[in-house]
Design a protein that fits this description.
single chain; alpha+beta; Phosphorylase Kinase, domain 1; 2 domains; three-stranded mixed beta sheet; 11 helices; 49% helix; Kinase-like_dom_sf; Aminoglycoside phosphotransferase domain-containing protein; Aminoglycoside_PTrfase
């Protein structure tokens, strides 16, 4: 394990750092509110409202540097940290109010779809404006999931004995059979003319504050990649909440709302969105591999099979 979130020395150091960087007097003790194998979150009550401390395990530590870089570039569209410790992967952030999920908790299907469309347009604009940061983000340790490196990452995963065992013979053979086509999809996507930028890779209505304006946060799965890969999780999750199957009109509407923020031939953009949804299943598998490697607590349940489950999705139909 990389960390022990309950080690007294670690807790003491973390809480000292928090108190040093608070922007308002605390009104109570710092308390753990969520612990996962890859991260831990503590809540700090203050006279100005709650403050939030987050720490990640080593392979996800880059989130702190990424959050800081995005805040400097676009402070009106992301959650701006109060403090960042890049070396230790620590973040201290304010409370930004209800998330989009909170705001939609009592809304109907049409209202939910409209707000999702609005959010996706805002997110696409963020990605476009972050394009000049791509090389800088890679230098900060943000994972590289650009289309030209994904085939090698797929090969690495398939060669991993743990992944092979988790897939089992039948699924391993099925995913391996897709590998040549996967390389072709990546090459076509790389030639699409849409530049690499930050790609959240876990974009849902729980990772954006309702605003206005929408403020995006929780970048622990993110990478530098083809931007349209964000649609994989976003549309999959939207389909779940809306009761919409892959290819449903609601999901097409959301895809088109997102793509409306990008210049280019609409048919070419739609083709790129389909390809990005396919190949980003590998970036999702790599993200889970980082999250579970050196986990700070035992891994169990569906989380334990997340890497292989995402790889197995390569043989499944497109979301859009």
């Amino acid at each position: 394990m990389d960390h022990d979130w309950h080690d007294p020395d670690w807790i003491s150091a973390a809480h000292s750092w928090v108190r040093e960087h608070l922007d308002a007097p605390a009104t109570g003790p710092v308390e753990e509110v969520r612990s996962r194998p890859w991260s831990v979150t503590h809540r700090v009550p203050t006279v100005a409202g709650p403050r939030w401390f987050k720490a990640n395990t080593t392979d996800c530590r880059y989130e702190a540097a990424l959050a800081g870089a995005l805040a400097r570039r676009m402070p009106d569209r992301v959650l701006v940290p109060l403090a960042v410790d890049v070396a230790r992967g620590w973040l201290l952030t304010p409370d930004a109010g209800p998330t989009l999920r909170d705001a939609l908790s009592h809304g109907g299907g049409e209202a939910r779809t409209a707000r999702w469309a609005e959010m996706l347009r805002a997110y696409a604009a963020l990605q476009r404006d972050a394009t000049p940061l791509a090389d800088d983000l890679l230098s900060l340790g943000v994972p590289d999931h650009r289309p030209d490196v994904l085939p090698e990452q797929l090969a690495t995963l398939l060669a991993d004995p743990d992944v092979r065992a988790g897939l089992g013979p039948a699924r391993h053979a099925a995913v391996s059979a897709v590998a040549p086509a996967f390389a072709e999809w990546c090459a076509e996507l790389a030639a699409s003319g849409v530049p690499a930028t930050v790609q959240h890779d876990d974009l849902t209505d729980a990772n954006v504050f309702a605003g206005p304006p929408y403020r995006f946060f929780d970048w622990g799965d993110a990478g530098v990649a083809h931007p349209f890969g964000s649609l994989l999780v976003a549309l999959s999750f939207a389909g779940h909440t809306l009761g919409a199957a892959p290819g449903a009109p609601e999901l097409i509407r959301l895809r088109d709302a997102y793509l409306s923020a990008w210049p280019g031939d609409p048919a070419a953009l739609r083709r790129a969105a389909t390809l990005a949804g396919r190949v980003s299943r590998v970036s999702r598998a790599m993200s889970w591999r980082r999250a579970l490697r050196g986990a700070a607590r035992p891994v169990s349940g569906g989380v334990a099979t997340a890497v292989t489950d995402w790889l197995a999705e390569l043989t499944e139909p497109d979301v859009v």
